[in-house]
Amino acid sequence: MNKFKIISLVKISAFTVFLGRAYELYFFGAPFRAILWDESLLTPIVEGLSNYSWADYATSSRVNQWIDGFTKASSFIFLAAALVSLFWDKIKVLRVKKIILSVAMFILLVIGICMVKDKNYEYLLFFELFIQFSAPVLLLLNVRFDVIENKKIINGLKIAIASTFIAHGLFAMGLIYLPGHFVDMTIIILDVNEAQATSFLYIVGLLDIVASIMIFIPKLSKYALLYMIYWGFSTAFARLMSGYSQNFMASSIHGSLYLVIYRLSHGIVPLLVLIIEEKLKKLKLPTNEI
Questions:
Q1: Which of 54, 106, 167, 203 has its CA 20 to 30 A from that of 89?
Q2: What is the rounded distance in angstroms from the CA atom of residue 32 to the CA atom of residue 69?
Q3: Per-residue pLDDT of the chain (290 residues; tens, 9 = 90+)
Q4: Which of 283, 191, 189 has its CA nearest to residue 235?
């Protein structure tokens, strides 16, 4: 694998994250109201900075339209960030690229915070997003791709991967709580009952955590990454498979395709790290000497 293919994976990973989020926000919205309609949090701000009472603010059609408009605008920002990521090398004005990516990253961060707030402060949901942040961060920092094999960068990517897989594993094992859609997807795809689905999820959740430890062990890293590549892509496409209906083909694909797109990074980023490490092995160079 040459340098061009490594660069391409970084750009494609960032592209899929932003494209999937653009798709999601344009057609299905975002959880911004989890914060924007939080009475205890926003009442002092609303009543202190405007003539609105909280009741007026919360029931205002104008405010509701503003939130919808902001959501749509955010979707276009994500689309712009997706195109900037894909054509990163073709766009010569670095400042423009960084501004677009910075704004998109900030909105993605806000969405992550809103998700946590919307789910009663379930912080693991935010850690699940780390792998989606990783490639855009590399682009945002304008990392020189001829030195992407640097040990700090590789370890940073591994931390992002491990954070996502550990969070996913803890959910799958039911140690925090077992998400109902995990069970539903397993039942639909594997054609098993609820008890079997729960047992299966516990096993793969445990494997997620074990793999997250193994990627930091040089002799075991390759095998952990191979598992993560397979499972990352599998869990992405599982959203499409579990939501597919032959009777409502177009609408069922439309309703879950965005979930697949922005989760493709869960397989792409481990693949990126595997390619880099295999390249270094062939060159017989330690990662800290690049």
A1: 106
A2: 12
A3: 456 678 889 999 999 999 999 999 999 999 999 998 888 888 998 888 888 888 889 889 998 999 999 999 999 999 999 999 999 989 989 899 999 999 999 999 999 999 998 887 788 888 989 999 999 999 988 766 555 557 788 899 999 999 999 999 999 999 888 988 899 999 999 999 999 999 999 999 999 999 999 999 999 999 999 999 999 999 999 999 888 877 788 988 999 999 999 999 999 999 999 988 888 777 765 554 43
A4: 189
Q: Are 161 and 270 a contacting pair, CB within 8 Å?
A: yes
Two structure tokens written together for 192? 């098993």
DSSP 160-198: HHHHHHHHHHHHHHTSS---HHHHHHHHHHHT--HHHHH
Could you tell me the pTM of the whole model? 0.90
Give residue for tokens 């919808």. Answer: 68
List, in sequence order, the alpha helices (H) in 174-264.
Answer: 180-190, 194-214, 218-243, 249-263
* Amino acid symbol at 54: W
Calculate the dihedral angle through the C-alpha atoms of 189, 192, 198, 203, rounding to the nearest 10 degrees: -70
HEC sequence for 33-57: HHHHCCHHHHHHHHHHHCCCCHHHH
- 17 vs 85: CA distance, rounded Å: 10
